[in-house]
Write a structure and sequence with these properties.
Length: 479
Amino acid sequence: MSRYEAVIGLEVHAQLLTKTKAFCSCSTAFGAPPNTQVCPTCLGLPGALPVLNGKAVELAVRAALALNCAVRNESIFARKNYFYPDLPKGYQISQYDRPYSEHGYLDITVETKGSEPATKRVGITRAHMEEDAGKNMHEHGDVSVVDLNRSGTALVEIVSEPDLRSADEAAEYLKTLREILVFIGVNDGNLEEGSFRCDANVSIRPLGQEKFGTRAELKNINSFKFVREAINYEIARQEGVLESGGKVIQETRGWDEKAGKTFSMRSKEEAQDYRYFPEPDLPPLVISDAFVEEVRTTMPELPAARRARFVRDHGQTPYAAQVLTTHPEVTRFYEEAVALHGDFVKVGNFVQAEVLRDVQTRGLTATFSVSASQVAELLKLVDQGDISGKQAKEVYAKMVGTSKAPADIVKELGMQQVTDSGAIDEVCKRVVDESPKQAEAYKAGKVAMLGYFVGLVMKETKGSANPQMVNAALKRLLS
Ligand SMILES: [Zn+2]
């Protein structure tokens, strides 16, 4: 049992899904050849002036509202001065003492072994707008090169209170935050491409002590797995330092995923090292209450509220509600199929069992192998007794990747369900006659034997017999 408690706060950099950069009209598309999406402004050439992207402000306000933050009517852009090869201006346009938004919270679900999942509220200190830097690349032999395509891309930095107490809580916070930002169309949630990045401030303190310990900042952890691993490693490392009588020093540390270790990068800068001052080339950012209210009316239902509604109004289990809201497009597909079919649970089950296996998601988009209307029609065929549930899976497999109507596939496969009672009786009778021992056992009270006969009939009819009718016929014959 550890004598220490971890104290963790996260800083998330989320690229805003604007087509163009924060202060110029260069494209933000990912994957273009290096240094092809640049102009004097984002290259930081002398005399070039920034002009704020209005769409970026709208998306930033959406993020603030989703995080229950207050939006400031007048905020200030500030220069954060530092030198790095990926920052040609020598400063980053950010916000400092007057960010556009602050004082919010995010509710996460925390699971503790042996008890019910509980909701934990994590404070959001602030969210501010800033521009991204370029990218240094070191995989070119003994030279490093820089790609400035990313330079000037609009970001929000979302800073949490140090409310998180374990690596698991930190990972849950990140997942919840990412899900919300993707759901509201603010960010594409792509950790691998770096459009959603996380730094973690980690410190430990003796249990019961209120004062925070000295923290290390873990930089750019680019997967949920690494977040857990890096924080757990860091907690253990700091415990080791304290237990051996040492002192934790304030520093910036990186994560070496191959070695599974954090390593010291540099001693951590203090805010004053950046010589923040108000950006002279940009006026104060004015966001009116009317604009905030206008944005509020376009906000979709957030994932947690949607899950609660699916459980309350649709009769879904909490697990099903979770699965059906993992991606906005999955939710859209489910709701569209429900609108056409009418039964929440039948549609929900089928989407989970079959449709989700073939879905490819990428950022905000998802590619389905079938359409919602195909699924609705297929389930109607089951409802009408034309095919069995088992046959529906076969039809689905044939339907994947085509736009064929399920009824046509049913015809093609010649699998119209047998509902002719004469034909069903005939097969049932034969099956019972061929298994006298099992029939005796059933009659002697071993009712589970019915399943044995049902299985035989289904095998004989290649699954095409109506199961209710088979059950009824067998019970009659065996009684
Ligand atoms: Zn540009």
